[in-house]
Amino acid sequence: MHVKPIKMRWLTGGVNYSYLLTTQDRSKSWLIDSAEVAEVLPHLSNSEMDSIEAIVNTHHHYDHAGGNIAMLAALKKQIGRTVKVIAGSGNSPAASDIPKHLQRYSLGDLEITCIRTPCHTQDSVCYHVKDSDTNEQALFTGDTLFTAGCGRFFEGTAEEMDTALNDRIPKGVQEPNWNITRVFPGHEYTKSNVKFVRKAVYPNLGDNKSFDELEKFCEGHEVTTGHFTLTDEMQFNPFMKLNDPLVRKAVSDHKNAFTHAQVMNQLRKMKNAA
């Protein structure tokens, strides 16, 4: 498979990503979260536009789904046909396919599983992609899972985010695939997440060696999307390490008495205030 990240809203602080997911032979593609059409189109060749089978949203927020109608029009003009819009609910403009949890799609040789992860929005969906020919795998997580972080609980609860990150995503991807599944989030928030985690959770070098490596990587790279796997997240992302003694210490659970949801809630409150 091929994954092309396309920067959107970087000059205005949004640091969003759209993604072009393409089969290995480049014959078929999905265009994911192409909210800013004027910023996305210049990065698509005519052949890439010709290959697009669907516009896909991870959730309905305007900075992910707001370009659906304009992109449909641009594609119709280029390729002479209307493509599907796959999204978690009718709140995404022009949504035509609303997948159920664990529903699968085929895109050429790619098998794609839709993992519904309600919390950031109730219609949040993560898309797990497997290429059986190359053994490559990818997970497009929108605003649910960020590198070393997670999204705000705009339409859900801490319990729902715990379920999303620590139950639905791991089970949907399946354990044998965790260490080869690269994570592609909806925003480039890694440096700010690392800054928070270093201050609040792992203040000392050596507290978490995987996190130390992530911090070092961030020092030399502006773009981090796709560089880390789901296994990596489980090793350094505190929102996926709710039983880690240092995470519980960070949220003042000195007696190890908090539920997962309570740890998640307090950790997110701390991040919101950072």
From TrEMBL:
Enzyme class: hydrolase
Record's keyword annotation contains Metal-binding: yes
Catalysis performed (reactions): (R)-S-lactoylglutathione + H2O = (R)-lactate + glutathione + H(+); an S-(2-hydroxyacyl)glutathione + H2O = a 2-hydroxy carboxylate + glutathione + H(+)
Pathway(s) annotated for this protein in UniProt: Secondary metabolite metabolism; methylglyoxal degradation; (R)-lactate from methylglyoxal: step 2/2
EC number: 3.1.2.6
Cofactor(s) recorded in Swiss-Prot or TrEMBL: Zn(2+)
Signal peptide: none
GO cellular component, one term: mitochondrial matrix
Ranges for domain Metallo-beta-lactamase: 15-187
Record's keyword terms, sorted: Hydrolase, Metal-binding, Zinc
GO BP annotations, alphabetical order: methylglyoxal catabolic process to D-lactate via S-lactoyl-glutathione
GO molecular function, one term: hydroxyacylglutathione hydrolase activity
SUPFAM superfamilies for the chain: Metallo-hydrolase/oxidoreductase (SSF56281)
Taxonomic superkingdom: Eukaryota
Family the entry assigns: Belongs to the metallo-beta-lactamase superfamily. Glyoxalase II family.
Protein role: Thiolesterase that catalyzes the hydrolysis of S-D-lactoylglutathione to form glutathione and D-lactic acid. Involved in the metabolism of methylglyoxal, a toxic compound for yeast proliferation, by converting methylglyoxal to lactate via S-D-lactoylglutathione by sequential enzyme reactions catalyzed by glyoxalase I and glyoxalase II.
Protein known as: hydroxyacylglutathione hydrolase
Species, as recorded: Torulaspora delbrueckii (Yeast)
